Amino acid sequence: MRGSKLVILGLVVAVLSCQKGQDTRPNVLFIAVDDLNDWITLFDADNPIRTPHLERLASKGVFFSHAYCSSPACNPSRVSLLTGTRPHKTGVYGNKSDWRKALPEVETIQQYFRRHGYYSVGAGKIFHHHWDGAFHDTASFDDFLPMPDTYPDSPIPAQKLNGFAWYGSKNTDWGAWPLEETDAVDYRTASYAADFLSKPHGKPFILSVGIFRPHMPAYSPPQYRKRYPLENAVMPEVKVDDWDDLPNGAVALMEATKWFWQGMERAMEIDSTAWADMVTSYQAAASFADAQIGRVLDALEQSAYADNIVIVLWSDHGYHLGEKQHMEKFALWEKTTHVPFIIVAPGQAAAGTEIHAPVDLTAVYPTLIDLCGLPRKDDLDGMSLLPLLKGADSPFPPALMTYMQGNHAVRTERWRYIRYADGSEELYDHTRDQQEWYNLAGDARYAPVLDSLKNFVPQRSAAAVADMEKPTAVQSTEYNPDASSRK
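and the corresponding structure tokens:
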């Protein structure tokens, strides 16, 4: 008997010796999608935008049905998530905010993982993409494939609308392009990820994959555009007097971006199908993005890493396609802040779980630290979601969103409360008004609700950081010169 025990002990020692020096911490697949809203089948099977690969991913992990960005603009949203900081504390509010100059010592997720022995690689759009990668953080990666700006020779709708000047910009464009899927930027990004996953790596890695579509210009190859024919267009519902009950703070904040919807109204006077063409092009671009994510998931399933990897997928903000007479993002309403958010963490949460508690994306950084067993980081603004993943009935504060200095939104399971810099307010009851058509803030019956939600609004907001100085060698592709740091 004693001999048998010694044999067993010897085998254990041998196994441990073989494993000595091996790092068994989980790898990380970190997928960012640009401008993907909640009108996808991941949220509701009846939604028009089909996203089978996002649903496939959610079936393997946890889907947060009420997840919200920190800020409804690319740069501040991504900086907030990637650094674990909130915009109202950093002053990074706009798409031109020079975030790294303002936060020189702050570690990004990728930097933190690198410091703790991870190999960090990536491709596509992770940080804000303007100005030929000027906002990108090279210190976050051991290797990175940048996203080039590629456009057709001339804007597609401009040809259809006889050169209508509003469509002359590169970004306010949409349609079937490029003709070959393999020529698309996101195809290139997904191929980089697939190639990386096919190779052996000597230490754990964090692979960051930034999918650009459905960001404007809403391009996708012809086979995707054909899935959403113009004659069958499913369009957003619009209330013609939707702005009548908005407070002064909302009107002032939205003034710089109202031109997009006004331009669409003018376009429809020339071609009544212009709006539907744009909407269906966005839908096609979203399905194209989903397909590229599917290619990455296929590569992962065929790789040696499929059983030891944490996956997080998120969108940097939502997107309006005409709802509330608004286009794109840059607002504090539901449609522009509600985002897809999925975590796959084997052994930590049951596959196919759906969590309805409102959360915001400042949770990503601390959650990844916990899931990978890294040392706790005490200077993060968000809370780890690990208790929710494990099924604990853990109280979380409402989701908090910020757009520009002093403007905030709070989202509970029932309410969306918005307080603007001038003190004016909006309140929407999502049990009765999911479209946010009826602002209840002026109704005295809801004063107790307002009072309770005000407690979650920051009392102070940092001054806006300086905008980055545009590199002289970069040609601007921006389409609204009057929007200042918003674009």
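(Above: one complete record from the training split.) The two ends are 75 Å apart (CA to CA).
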